[in-house]
Specification:
Layout lengths: L10 H12 L5 H11 L4 E5 L2 H6 L1 E2 L2 E6 L2 H7 L5 E4 L5 E9 L12 H12 L3 E6 L4 E6 L2 E4 L3 H34 L3 E2 H28 L4 H11 L2 H12 L5 H13 L2 H4 L2 H8 L10 E2 L4 H5 L8 H9 L2 H10 L2 H5 L5 H14 L2
Parallel strand pairs: 1-4
Antiparallel strand pairs: 1-6, 2-5, 3-5, 4-5, 6-7, 7-8, 9-10
Helix pairs in contact: 2-4, 6-7, 6-8, 6-17, 7-8, 7-9, 9-10
């Protein structure tokens, strides 16, 4: 799931997220569902809100036995629903006939899926329907259904995303190195900045898609999560600093708002110099060749002699990366007073960055 949007989740979103966790690979419930599909069985399973679920049906067998994957699989060989408590510790009923109000709205067509959708509207249970004919598992929460994806299908998507992220990260690293060289040369154009922002967005969007796969993979997603960190690690802060370097309002709050706007843009808008300039707070008349002056927050934050939080103080004092570079070369005393332990090393580091640019 997208961690950036967690604060915007509705109660239903939160319950769906919990349902994904409960049915992810590596859980006992997912093991049972995989066994049911492999056995070419159909099933209807209600988890939680036991009292209201039982009130919507009749008959069946009262069990009250401990929950295991094998036991659930065996009980699903019978017709009717299996009722499990909310903590997945006890199986309460088996072969239970559910009869939810038929007037409850649903777009489902199969009998099991219709019953499952209506039970999720009628109660606060997580309701799972397994189609015997299509070998498909649907999970319903508050009338909203989602289909469980097989691990093989998720891994296919993961492989495509990781390949795309590896390629994009390589392009972004090269572009950032080139941007640093241009910054130190005082010759950055809007077109250079647009290209970097575009690559940042491609990488971050692919990362969000990968996050969703990792979440659905459960314990099977650990290696993928490590790969994601390899591609994304450090880039989130670097993206924000780059925006602050070139936005008219360089505050962190403004950078977050700009990032949100970039994220909502279509590819053609992200590629448009005019659109990006306007989003950064400038005149739409700006072109790709318009020269921009960076503050230097991103570049300074990469220098070892600059302690955390010091880049902002230096930029506030000097106003731009070029001014900092001139001060480091000509009169480093003020930089020393500001806490830079070795102003000469700062100048050398900046020159090395310049020399490494392509």
């Amino acid at each position: 799931m997208d961690s950036a949007n967690r604060s915007d989740k509705t109660p239903t979103d939160a319950r769906i997220e919990t349902a994904v966790k409960m049915t992810a690979p590596g859980t006992a419930l997912r093991k049972a569902l995989d066994m049911i599909i492999a056995g070419h069985l159909g099933a209807l399973i209600c988890v939680g809100d036991t009292e209201n679920v039982l009130a919507a049906g009749a008959d069946g067998f009262a069990l009250d036995v401990s929950f295991t994957a094998n036991r659930l699989f065996e009980l699903c060989k019978m017709d009717g629903a299996v009722i499990i408590d909310k903590d997945l510790t006890r199986i309460v009923r088996a072969n239970y006939h559910l009869n939810p109000d038929p007037s409850l709205p649903t777009t489902e067509t199969g009998t099991r899926h219709r019953t499952a959708a209506r039970m999720s509207l009628l109660t606060s249970a997580m309701v799972i329907s397994v189609s015997e004919r299509r070998s498909v598992v649907n999970v319903y929460i508050d009338g909203h259904g989602f289909q469980l994806q097989p691990v093989s299908e998720l891994m296919s998507v993961v492989n495509q995303l990781t390949a795309a992220m590896q390629n994009t990260r390589s392009q972004l690293d090269r572009s950032l190195q080139h941007l640093t060289s241009l910054e130190l040369d005082n010759f950055v154009t809007l077109g250079d900045v647009v290209n970097v922002f575009y690559l940042f967005e491609v990488l971050m969007t692919a990362g969000e898609e990968l996050d969703r796969c990792i979440f659905q993979l459960g314990t099977d997603g650990r290696i993928t999560e490590m790969q994601r960190e390899e591609f994304i690690g450090g880039m989130d802060e670097e993206y924000t600093l780059t925006i602050r370097d070139y936005a008219k309002d360089s505050s962190e709050e403004s950078a977050r708002a700009i990032r949100k706007k970039f994220h909502e843009m279509a590819n053609s808008q992200l590629r448009s110099a005019k659109t990006v300039a306007k989003t950064l707070g400038y005149d739409e008349s700006w072109t790709e060749d318009t020269i921009m002056t960076p503050l230097g927050l991103r570049t300074l934050s990469r220098v070892s002699v600059i302690r955390e939080g010091m880049a902002d103080k230096i930029v506030d004092e000097y106003g731009s990366l070029q001014e900092v570079l001139e001060a480091a070369e000509d009169d480093s005393s003020k930089l020393g007073e500001m806490g830079v332990s070795n102003p000469g090393a700062l100048a050398n580091s900046l020159h090395r960055m310049w020399g490494n640019g392509e």
